[in-house]
Design a protein that fits this description.
alpha+beta; 79 residues; 4-stranded mixed sheet; single chain; 2 helices
Length: 79
């Protein structure tokens, strides 16, 4: 695989990660929250988003298959 092909695959991967799925594969729900990885600097807005269930904090280790989204209806992780 060439460098250009790898870069194209990575760009496609990034594009997929910017938008949540249309429907949950488990419950067909349409409400998703996102995971935040790494070191964060909390403020009132971040705490409010966490309190509403819009986001969840994860650890610093990000794997290729780490979930980016979660279904707010049934709690299923989505890539």
């Amino acid at each position: 695989m060439s460098v250009e092909e790898l870069e194209e695959d990575f760009e496609d991967f990034e594009e997929e990660q910017q938008h949540p799925p249309i429907r949950c594969s488990s419950c067909s729900g349409t409400t998703f929250g996102s995971y935040i990885y790494g070191l964060v600097f909390p403020d009132d807005d971040l705490f409010a988003q966490i309190g509403r269930g819009d986001i969840r904090l994860r650890g610093c280790c990000i794997e290729f298959d780490s979930p980016q989204w979660f279904c707010r209806d049934c709690d299923t992780d989505h890539p």
